[in-house]
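[retry 2/3] Transcriptional regulator: previous attempt timed out, resubmitting with same input.
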Amino acid sequence: MPTKKEKFAEVNRLLRLYMIQTQRFIMQQISILQVTPQQAHTLAYIKKHPGLIQRELSDFFHLRNASVTNMVKNLERDGLIERKIDPKSARNKRIYLTKKGEEIAQDIEDQMNRLNQQIVDRLDEKDIDNLLTSLENVIQSLDSKN
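[retry 2/3] Transcriptional regulator: success.
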């Protein structure tokens, strides 16, 4: 019978496998869109939060501001986003998707919905609730250690 520690090691392995397979799916689906996985996630987030500022991206993705700055510059260069000066604070630039960015973000959302539906179809609501609670507990234990 596996110990608690051995079971959790298996959980870690399965989480890594889930992330690898999800990343592989995303890479296959977005390769024709000519964006990186991080750019795809960023475009999807901006689509849901139009007018956000760069710091909000840093906070949400837990990335250094310098990393987000480079990514935002590349997205703007590629015509996927535009930055507009905030009328309430000239220091802030609000980030919006361009038409091209909206189209790509919608494609990404459609692909992710298909992937998520494929997973959800195999789980009942109780499984999802248990998984959610367990993962939240793991994250909280990690946050309390740092």
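[retry 2/3] Transcriptional regulator: The radius of gyration is 18 Å.
[retry 2/3] clearing retry counter.
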